[in-house]
Every structure is written in C-alpha cells, then in structure tokens.
Design a protein that fits this description.
Elements lengths: L2 H7 L9 E4 L9 E2 L6 E5 L4 E3 L4 E11 L4 E6 L2 H7 L1 E3 L4 E3 L6 E8 L5 E3 L4 E9 L10 H6 L15
Antiparallel strand pairs: 1-5, 2-3, 3-11, 4-10, 5-9, 6-8, 6-11, 7-9
C-alpha cells in the first residue's frame, strides 16, 4: 500500500478536556500524571483515615471532575499499594460517568493483617479516562439467541482452562 494511502487511513487524534475543580481552592490534590505517557492520573486523599484490617472506607479527594461525554473515568488501584500493603480499590474499577459532577471519592479496602493509615495527600488510586461506545440494545427471543450460539456457547467460568 502506498504511503499516501496509509496516511489517509489514520484516525485523527481525539482531543478531550477533563475539567477539574478543587473544593477547598487548593491545587495540591489535583489528580495528575506522574510520567509522560502514563494512562492513569494519581488520585490523592483529602483526609486522614485509618482502615482496619479486612475493612474498607470511602475516602474523599476534595476534587470534582467533569468527564466529557463519550468518555468514562475508571478509578483503578495503584499496583504499589496492592503489592506492598494489600490496599486496593474495593469496586475496581470504579466508574465515573460524564453525568456525575460531585466529589471524586474512592472506596479503599485493606486486605492486609494490620490497620493501614492514609494521610492527607497520599496517593490512593489512579484515574484512567477512556472512550467508550453505548450500543443500541435489542431484545430478542430465546430462540433467536440460540441461533446466535458460538463454539463456546454457554460455557462460562473456567471454560478456557487454567
């Protein structure tokens, strides 16, 4: 394929703007990328809280985020907290819809054998902004679903082996 054809087929980079505001007027807790090219922005705690072992708490960030339409904010765990301390996001990934404009909060669970202290300003999760599609939903009969069967069919959990 000639080079000019490849260039014509490329998608334009979709630009988007995520609007944020700090509920207390400070800029220190804004989510931000640690490195160029990172997918996730670090979310920081806006409060000090102790999470007992085997327990979970909802922690405020003090930040409001407006995700653009056609995008979703995914609140994901931080791998370092999970691997070192057994701390993760309870409902991972948490969903931040474009229609929500309240405070960004994170549900953190402590899977470790001891309490975990989170201080104000600690990085507790990461926010990934991703495009998505909302397909139309078509309700069909069981017979029509049977006609759509695949080789896998209804084989569920564990069907692909270990």
């Amino acid at each position: 394929m000639p080079l000019d054809k490849i260039c014509e087929c490329r998608r334009e980079k979709q630009e988007s703007v995520i609007k944020m505001s700090s509920m207390d007027g400070s800029e220190e807790n804004y989510p931000c990328y640690a490195h160029p090219g990172d997918a996730g922005m670090d979310i920081k705690s806006n409060e000090e809280i102790v999470i007992p072992q085997g327990s979970w708490k909802t922690i405020g960030s003090g930040i409001r985020v407006k995700v653009p339409e056609g995008f979703v904010g995914l609140v994901c765990p931080r791998s370092g907290l999970a691997s070192k301390f057994g701390i993760t996001v309870e409902n991972a990934p948490g969903i931040l819809d474009s229609s929500y404009t309240g405070e960004l909060k994170v549900i953190i669970i402590n899977h470790s054998n001891c309490e975990y202290v989170i201080k104000k300003g600690d990085k507790i999760a990461q926010l990934v902004i991703a495009p998505f599609v909302s397909p139309k939903i078509m309700f069909v009969s069981e017979e029509e679903m049977d006609e759509l069967n695949t080789e896998r069919g209804n084989k569920g959990f564990g069907s692909s082996g270990r």
